[in-house]
Structures are given as C-alpha cells and as structure tokens.
Amino acid sequence: LASALAGINVDSSASILASVDNELSDNEKEAVKNFGLYIIQLHNLNSTTTIWSYTCAVLLQMKSAGHKKLMFSKLQSSLEDFVTLSKRLGRRIIIRKSIKDDLRYHLKLHSDLFQYDALFPNSLIELRRFKCIENNGLKKEYIEKMLCEVILSYYANQMMHGFVDISLLCHVLLSIQMLSRANHIFRELRSLFVYEFVCSLQEEEIDKLFAESLSCLLRISAISLDNDHIIVEEEQILKQIALLMQPFIARYYCVMQCLVQLVGTQFTNEVLFEESLQLAVNLFARQQGNSTSR
Question: One biological-process term from Gene Ontology (predicted)?
C-alpha cells in the first residue's frame, strides 16, 4: 500500500476520483473517492513550493495591470511583499539563499521565457513573444501574447492549492460583507472550481473551507467581525489575494458566455473551444483599443 501511494501522481488524482471502476458498489466508489480526497488534502497540507511559483504569480498580476516591461528591482520588491503576505497566511515557501538570489537564479534558469540584457536592479525584463502559425491576424497576435502567460500560469498553479479558497473568499468579501450571505456565495463559487482544485462537494466540507479562510483573514487583521457583519480592514490585501483566482474566473466567463449563445444548438467540444477563443480574442481587441485610446 505504501509503495502504491508513493507512486500516485497528485495531478492525476482528479481523474482517479472521476473514473472509479464501474464494477464497484456505490458505497465502495464513495470510499475510493474519499480516500483520493484524503491523499490530495494530505499532499497539499505538507507541500512546500519554491520562490519560482510565487514569481510567476506576481509576473502574471503585474502583466494584467498593464506592465509590459518590468524593472528587476520592482519585480523583486513585489515578490518580497507577496512572500511576506503568504507567510502571514501560513504558507510555506522554500527560499534557498535569499529572495533576490533565488529570483535571479530562476530567471536565468527560465531565460527562454524572457528578454533582458542583464539582471541588475535597473534591468528591464520583458516576456518573450512566441511565434505561431495562425493566419488570422488578431487571433495570431492574441495567441502569441498569451503563450508565455500559459507557461507562467502552469508554474504559478503549483502554489494555487494554498490560495484558491482564500482568494475566492476575498472576491466575495470585496462586494458582500454579510457573513451568512458571503458563506452562501462562497459555497456556490467553490463548487464551480471543484475540478480544477479538487475538494469534497459536501456542504459541511465547503463550509469548513470557508471558516478556515475567514479565520486566516481575521488572524492577519485583514477583516474583523461585528456579529453577522464583516468589516474589511485591509482592502488592498483582499484585492491582492483575490487577483490570484481572477484568471480562472475570466476563463469561466468566456466559456459560460459561449454556452449561453449556444443554447438550443448541437455543438462539439471543438466548436465550444473555438467560440470561447474567439470571444477571448474579441475581449483582447477591445482592451487593446481602450489602452490605445488612453
């Protein structure tokens, strides 16, 4: 059993939960699913990540804020702030030498993703633009600009299991401060992301995730409680944490919008993908137009 557990890839655990042998009884299937959830929870509880995953998360946030080129010193200070906040939230991070040295090491290690001359404090770092063979001009531009982001997202996602719940809660609390209502909306949101970030769909289990995230925000004094009312004390902290789940929410928006448009028609996964991609391209073009007009 120990050898079998050691060989389980956590990335494939979701598929284990979804495809249990059809010959098993319902009770046996439920037992296997619960065991799979336990493995994932145990892995997440004991996992630590290097500074690189946090760097990628910061890079994605800064890019979404409109920064096309980043000064090394600015990236370093933003990363230091994020690491400090993450440690306050109880997250464990592997720092081999120092944040500055580790950042320089990982940027050099992944130099194929960036364009820079050197890594001095005032050095400018730019995400590399990869070429693709797509003929459509606007779609080609969108894909080329997004390819590097996709790679960064892959690395950033390695630390997301520790932030998904609290990030979704921060999204909720930025607009809803009634405790009972916030709990309900969080429950609905968390259920949407059960396949990306596996958790039990039992109501009491999701409520437990809500309580843990709420307690975490209370501990760092980002919020306070007044009976059933939540008081936001540090709005900027909530916004920073909420940004971590924003890319997932944005992608869900594209897919959901396309599903609404396809109601009443028969379509394949390929059609849904193309429609979603086209919507993303259109939104990208609109953003480009707005930034140009400014």
Answer: phospholipid biosynthetic process
